[in-house]
Amino acid sequence: MTVAAQRSAASRLPHRQLRRACLPVIAGTALATALTGCGNGPETASATPNSATSAAVSPTRVAPTTQGTVPPVTTSGSADCATDLSAPEIRRAVATLPPYDAGGGDTWAWNDNPPALRGTYNRCSTLSVVVVTIQRATASSPEHALLFHKGDYVGTATPKAQAFTTIDTGAGTDDTVVLTYKTPGSCNACPDGTSTTVSFHWNGSGVDMQGRPPIN
What we know:
It contains 1 helix and 11 strands; from the N terminus they run E-H-E-E-E-E-E-E-E-E-E-E. By secondary structure, it is mainly beta. It has one domain. The protein has a 5-stranded antiparallel β-sheet with strand order 1-11-10-9-8, with no helix packed on it. A 4-stranded antiparallel β-sheet has the order 4-5-6-7, covered by helices on one side. A hairpin with a 4-residue loop joins strand 10 and strand 11. The chain is globular. The model is unreliable at 1-58 and 63-78 (pLDDT under 50).
């Protein structure tokens, strides 16, 4: 919400295309170009990382698709600009996500219950995010980061679910969402894990991703 080679290609998709697959974030031929960036530089992709990059990376554009430290939450239906994790737009966005495939024929539905959500969603933000996890989740369960522009869902930040996703509200702005993904080391809570910071910026017609998440 792992790439051996660095990437630098960027594809641009119109805002309304976001409601198809997984923000280039989801998957597909045209979606093949995604929000992936190289560890050392920005990239432009649709919400699905898959373009090779060199050490110096240029921003990746993220186009729309279908498929924590947070401000106070208000009740659903509020017309102001406060954070509202019970907004119906969030429930509708979660409903577009296919069940998480845990393997062995097991699937898990995503949890749209407001107390289980983390995020900055409000209808006035140029770009906001909501992190959703599966039902009966544990600390290491998969999560998807859902991106919204002025209250409208534009797609997931990454085509595949990630675990240990943190919203860096201190680094984010009205038009930029910053997420930190943790890759566990010898154990989930061990200090030898690594963190990857990725930013998502609204460019006026879509989302540019700078950096590359650990799972693509």
